[in-house]
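Researcher: Here's my situation. A collaborator sent me these components and asked whether they could plausibly form a single complex. I don't have experimental data yet, so a predicted model of the whole assembly would be a useful starting point for our discussion.
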Amino acid sequence: MLISMNWIRDFVNLDNEDLEKLIKRFTLSTAEVEDIIFKGKDISDIVVGEIISCENHPDSDHLHILKVDGGDAIYDVVCGAPNARAGIKTAFAKPGAQVGEIKIKPTKLRGVISNGMCCSEREIGISDNHEGIMELDSSLANGTDIKTIYPIDDVIFEVDNKSLTNRPDLWGHYGIAREFAALTGQPLKPLDIMENPYTGDAEVDIDIRNKDLVFRYTSVRIENITQKEALNEMKVRLYYCGTRAINLLADLTNYLMLELGQPMHAFDGSKINKIVVDTPKENTKFITLDGQERDITTDTLMIYDNDTPVAIAGIMGGLDSEITDETNSLVLESANFDGVSVRKSASRMALRTDASARYEKTLDPEMTMLAVKRFMKLLFDVDPEAKITSNITDVYVKKYPEITVEFDKAFIDRYTGIDISNERIKDTLISLGFETTENNGNFITKVPSFRATKDVSMKADIVEEITRIYGYDNFSIKTTLSPILPAKTSLLRKEENHIKDLLVKSYAMNEVHTRVWQDPDELKNLGIEIEDNVRLLGSSDEQGILRTTLMQSLLPLINKNKNERPEFSLFEVGRCVEGTKEGNLANEKRHLGIAMYTKTDSEKNLYFKAVELINTMIDELKHKKPSYEKCEPVHAWQHPKNTSKIIVDDICIGIINTLYPTNLSKIAKNAKVVLIEIDMDDLLSITADELSFDEPSKFPGIDYDLSLVMPEGIRFENIEQCWKTKKVKELKKVSTIDVYDNGKVKSITLRFSFENPERTLTSEEVQHSIDIILANLKELNVELKMQ
Amino acid sequence: MKEKVDALRTKFQADLQAVSDKAGLEELRLSFMSKKGAIQDLMKELSQIPNDQKKDAGQLINMFKQEVAKHFDERKKELDALEEKRLIESSESYDESMPTESPVGSYHPITLIQRELEDIFKSMGFDVEDYNEIVDDYNCFEALNIPKFHPARDMQDTYYLSTNNQLLKSHTSAAQNTIMRKYGDKLKKNGRPIRAVFPGRCFRNEAIDSCHDNTFFQMEGVMIDENISISNLIYFMKTMLSEVFEKDVTVRLRPGFFPFVEPGFELDIQCLICGGDGCPSCKGSGWLELCPCGMIHPNVLKHGGINTEEDPFKYTGFAFGLGLTRLAMMKYGVKDIRIFNEGDINALSQFESK
């Protein structure tokens, strides 16, 4: 929103203030200023000039040669404006003048010297009009500085609208002026208004049928309006604040809105007999004054003339009842509608207007009457012949409750951490419009109506009013008196950090973050169907379905990056959703997903690297060893033969698998992919074994190596049972010396280390244990490899 | 005897000169000094020498023996030195500038910035909490004093889900209520102040471009105790941000509106590039808007079970929200926000492990 300091100065005396500094303080105390523009700095030496003569340029079909009386001299000027003619007075830039970016100096135009320039409104920056040169009032003296006729010099600043969402009172200059008054300690001047001189008993006929969505509707009928144009000052202010001048009545309603924040609508008086405010019984169409046909739903509040819709309440008027240049009477609407309803209607129609933007902030209904009286005053300043032909009819449907807040200084001190004096507190509140009394540090303050619609209701709100005007820059910076207690890292975070460190540092993996929903296009490239799941509301078909595993995100990334590296692994610790649980709630899971890719190594090597990784991870985190159990694929992309559960303490914490051949071939001919997905909360639930310490034996142990030929179809974990029996004594450790696999024969060489902490073992004792192992192996048909 | 010793000395000197390595030297030493060596042979001859000459002859042999031993030692040192020299000369001088190849992984930049912040907050006594991505309407809005018809709750901004009244959390503040309930008892019974940060991923329905993404990371923090004030808030923000940026930052507060704080602030830091004079990166203002914060709204404390209806201001607190994604962009000079979520290995692998 653009704010004119000239306008502000109508209401508060800022003569002794540095305006730029003051505006910057506004940012710190009220709302964010995005830009400050100094108007008129680039306009100088432009005066009222009278065109004494006007002749055609001999070498041009549109240029004229003028003699212009600039007050101090007669200037020869070449001018191309179509309306240039003898007898008119215009804005004349003398040689040496500054007109925006142009410095005026004698210039030859088609062979004729031009000493100056006649200006359009656009050239001096007061409107977009560039159809011709300005035509000024003939009573103005030649040589009069244009700046004394038009308020060209001004400081305009732009406030970030977002920072005003909670301040309905700041959507007009008067409210902003109140802030400046509070910041400078100057009084806020009351608005100039006009009381209604009408003494008859005519009323505007108003029927509020939907009382839920209307707070107040105030109206007056005015006739015999003959003037068509607003005053220069008003037009320039409107332009500087981003609004185009249209005609007197439209300009006045816009001016009032920018001044008070109260949107107003002027209906053509000849078109309105009875104002009805209601929602339509059925969906309908309506043409707004911009000529667009709008779909009106049954929850859109409308203004009717009897049965004929004439405006969308709080948003935009209709084409048929619009003020035109012929209009000489009006019915004025100064109303207060429900903010939420206006916002919803405006956003449904994608028709957000200056009016709707204000209504949705929940405006103060007290304003409507004041706005009507201010409107009358401004209208009669321009058009004293106009006639008010009704009482101001005021239907006040709903009032906001009055809010009084009581607090004491101790409360303010505690909340701020600093000492702000009683007097300062009281003065600040009063300057902001809060009627306040103080007795011994006890305050009673009445929230003004323009702050009471939602913004200020309790003590904490009052703190803000006091502190923002006091200035946060003036606060001391103090630490708390609260006890300091150690903060411990949660196990959850420890495990997550540990795993990330392991994967990044020991396995050179790259961490990624991916979106929480499945991408149907990417997955189709891999021949993977979207899995049905919880979805985003309002999404359609296959879009917006949340992922059931991290693989729906990681597999596409493998595909995306496959040409960047011959070998890489990606991982993510992220969320997925495994359908719903009781109460139709999403079953959110925290997972670790790892996707390993190679096109240089074998799938088997990659797979065992993955197994090693899992074993290392579980060992480091839990000091335990996981087991693996082949299982049926759960997802279509999992390989039927190599999909296994990862089990720790009888809990399945995740899945390791290779990729289904068809999906794999979509990535690349020689690609190999191994996937690990672990449920981090299941992992977290597993208790870590305590680290135990055995005094190293002082007596030498005995190592015994065995080479076993692995029979087809038997898993190592079964063979392990051969020595995991109590009968095998003093076996300290079994380590793998060698694994041999030529595709036909698979053998493994193991070293059995025996040790007794109290004495040296004899070879007989060890042999006894070895014999038991050998006997067990024989039962499983595991043969020894001949050395 | 003297002649024999002299002859042996001559032979010894010639042999010693001829020796070129330590093995040869040892062989020579044995041939002179061992029990079967030449000197021992001379000793044996002593028995045939007349008694009156024995003493002199014995001395002569002993002196010769010492002389030989001395020469051996010297020659050994010479040969050691030669050997050392040879080893040094024959060894390779390495070129450290040769390229080395060791695979390195990378952390996601959000992980790096998150860890850094968590460390800072932990050192200031803040617990680090984790929170769901899917939350309910109550936690995301209701408990945060965001009224029913607030624009933030509109469908076009927030990802609602097909499940029962759930949505993808639109801000980390959605965890506030849970944190208050988790630690509230310790505050009220043991006087342990609530200090917690909770990083997390947030979602807002936005068109994606180089500055906007619908999926981003925040870190929220709260502190609640009996007498927490605005002055305390400024202190913690300033201290924390000075740690983050590793220099003494100047902060300023200005009013900002968020329904869950009152008063609410936008916290700016003085531009780190120009120091406040104004430059392109602060758009000439000298300040960077960094983090919304404020005193926790009394209604939010009430919803969190911290204060009661009867005593709505017993405990006070502040809350702040840091944009982790934005901080990571500032810290690492990332210009395009999309690299965070799009998994381009060439972009992400630059955040190597450290």
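Model: Some features of this prediction you could bring to your collaborator: The mean pLDDT of chain B is 91. The longest strand of chain B covers residues 215-225.
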